[in-house]
Specification:
By secondary structure, the chain is an alpha/beta fold. The chain has nine helices and ten strands.
Amino acid sequence: MSEPVAIEVSHLDVRFGDSHVVRDLGFSVRKGESYGIVGESGSGKSTVLRVLAGLNREWSGEIDILGERQPKQRGKAFHRAVQMVFQDPYGSLHPKMTVDDALSEPLAIHGIAGADARIARALSEVGLPASFRFRFPHQLSGGQRQRVAIARALVLEPTILLLDEPTSALDVSIQAEVLNLLQALRRERGLTYILVSHDLAVVAHMCERLMVMQHGRGVEEMTRATLAARNPETEYARQLLVASVGFRRGA
């Protein structure tokens, strides 16, 4: 029996002035699945993620998340269930806030008790010692900052994580560590992921299915097996495979 649908997107359109960024897009993600969205820069993939997260309210279409039709402006219950991890661990953490401040803030906003225990658990789950709790971002490496960003997303105990190029700003030596961490967290918590990336090796490693975007449209949906076999249906997807530096067969 297949898992129920966690995210359903239909006829999504996004415009910024005269620029038509996302065009009649539709896809669905099952509960517990890791779903990839790939495409070259400017294809609209990160815009889709920001719409899903409620950060961009200029859109039309239908979005259902966890069985509920989503309005333009989301409430607190949505943001407890759906969290986003951004691309740049340097920009996503406030330089004057300690790790403790960064993890305490969402708990305070949502009025959640037991902050100490939740923060300790979140740091432990991302592989950071308790001693990091009162450090500032400038005292952390890039990989450690991204682990803090993941911990901040986890501290509200969401069911869906939206991942916007979560390793592209990191050194290659650190990328695999963070990806493996994300995979382990998904298994342990039963999380649903949408991962946006330009790197097909990352998507092949992380996702069961993926959608290829070009000029705001979804041009092809494929499985990990199709990607690993380098056998897409569309010419654009084939070109993307050829252009993807570092893609490894069956990665």
